[in-house]
What does this fold into?
Amino acid sequence: MKIAGYIFAMIGGLALIGGLAAGHSVFGPLFWLALGIVLIYFGKKKEEEKHSAKSEATTPSDDNIHQNVNTQMVSADAGKEEVKRETTTYWEKYKSENPAKASQLQALLGVDFSLLSDNDAQEKINSVNRLCSQYSCEIKDVKKRCLQDLEQFPLSFLSKMIEMTEKEKEQEAFNFNIAQENTVCAMIIGWMKERKEILENSNVYNNHIEDGPAEDQLTPEESFRKRYTNALLKRIGGNANNALFCEGYDSPVAHELMDVMYAFLKDTTEKERADSHGYGKRYTSVIIEETEKVTKQYCHAALQECVEHFNFPNKKVVTSFRCPYCGSWKVWDEDYGFECAECGCTWHAPLGYNLYLEKH
Ligand SMILES: [Zn+2]
It folds into this structure.
């Protein structure tokens, strides 16, 4: 968990400095580390199937049966035995042999297998089995397992992931000589799209702009506060629902919030607008106040902690808000420094108003 958190924090950081925009090189391997061991597996499987195809060449495979059925359909003088075969589809055969698996398959893919061609049914079943052995789980659990991996990635990555998996889908279809819509990738793309939709609909940003008084009833300062908060929430998007990305001043979400905050603090157009609308003097304080609301709510961190870590990532964060030794928020401000009400230790911390503006 700890290591995973670290890796994902790293991804968050990289995305910020443009790693994602720069190309697949950084992002790709990390993404496939979680999801794409599947990819390695594809390669291996291809070899295995080649071998087994050779060794099974003498016994009729399901493919052969399938071809026979088709030939017999057009044959007018089919014997009794062939007629019997003709009416038994691949799916019916599979269902009678694996009733439990069959119902799990239908539920998993939401597909009525009895309407599929033998080829499609077989290819879909094989793909599901392949993913199940990848995760070493049953059919009914495979979607959950896959989604657990997906949860580790923020909304902003999903489009990229879908795009990458689309490419991978072509490769998989080629490797296995199956239709693209029957690949593992196609299945995963469906789940990623589902998840993307859920995240977009539960996006705090969307919820946030719905409530509050109408725009024309707000003072210019209130209007700016709202706009600024929306900018913060829009940036973190669906990540706000993911503790792995949010928790702490050193979380990727905290980092992104700092990025937005500094962008506004340095934005001369916004500052001029503030000056002309009468909240110019309060411009910095408004930004600080609003940012702190968000860092406290989503990161459980004081703004000052986030600021310190953002500016000096290699330095231990020492603030007046939290005990640097035990992490307690119960802190007394004494003449000799700060004292922790929980563990009793004392320390000095910069009161750092200037830290907000300094960016080395
Ligand atoms: Zn303490």
Summary: The longest helix spans residues 155-176.
